[in-house]
Amino acid sequence: MDVAAALNPADVGRVIHHEGVDVLRFERVYRAGRRSVWEAVTTLEGTGAWAFPLDFEPHAGGAVTSDLGEYGTMRGDVIAWDELQLLEYAWDAPDGHWHVVIMLDDVEGGIEGDAEGATALTFDHLAPDPHAPDYAAGWHWHLDRLAQYLAGQYPAAVDSDAHFEELQRLYSGGEG
Question: What is the extent of the structural domain holding 8?
Answer without folding.
Answer: 3-172
